[in-house]
Amino acid sequence: MKKMTTTLLFTFAGLLAFSQTNADIVGQWYNAKKDAVITLFEENETVSGKITWMQFPNDDNGNLKKGPLNPDEKLKFRVRIDMLMMSSFPFTGRSSTWIRKLN
Question: Which residues contact 81 (CB under 8 A, 6 or more apart)?
Answer without folding.
Answer: 51, 52, 53, 54, 57, 64
